[in-house]
Amino acid sequence: MFAPALVLLIAALLYFLVTTFVDLHPLNNVRDSKRSERITEAAINGPVMALPAVLLVLAAALSLPVLAYAGGAMEALIAAGGLSLWWLPYLAGKTVPWATAGTGVSWTELHSRTYAHTVTVLPRIGDRPRPNLEHMILHSLILLGAVFTLVAAASL
């Protein structure tokens, strides 16, 4: 289980970095985001998303499953944060406090400018922002990474 877990953790990180910086319209809408927003997002989330993979590798190298459990728990927290950011506004009409930290705009404004014109497969619920396909894929990778990392931890 170590290899699939590591592949998923790295795939999620690489997918995040590519979709943050590379214009893949209509999957993402990098062209309508500010460079400073992309850099801030990558600078904050990139290292956080890399840490579970580092912990998993260290756990295997040092025969310390507790590190893999920590990595899996951290990946689960990352998944919870992403799901809260995207699904609470859609399902409950509630925005998490960190949704637009440091940008000076509301989640609705940021979503309208950068995500509303991307591939979205979910039906509308009033005027609430909808999770786009780009983030549904990312969150799936992260969630699977958390599950596989916890399973890998149990097998170390």
What does this structure look like?
The protein has 156 residues and is mostly helical. The protein is built from five helices and no strands. The protein has one domain. The N and C termini lie close together (9 Å). The model has no long low-confidence stretch (mean pLDDT 94).
Question: What are the salient characteristics of this protein?
Answer:
156 residues; mainly alpha; 5 helices; 68% helix; elongated
User: Gap between N and C termini, in Å?
Assistant: 9 Å
Write down how many β-strands occur, each being a DSSP E stretch of 2 or more residues: 0
Tell me the number of helical segments per DSSP (H or I, 4 or more residues long): 5
Question: What structural class is derived from the secondary structure elements?
Answer: mainly alpha
Strand content: under 5%
Count of the domains: 1
List low-pLDDT spans.
none
What sequence of helices (H) and strands (E) makes up the elements?
HHHHH
What Rg, in angstroms, do the CA atoms define? 16 Å
Mean pLDDT: 94
Shape: elongated
Helix content: 55-70%
For the largest beta-sheet, the strand count, sense and barrel status come to: none
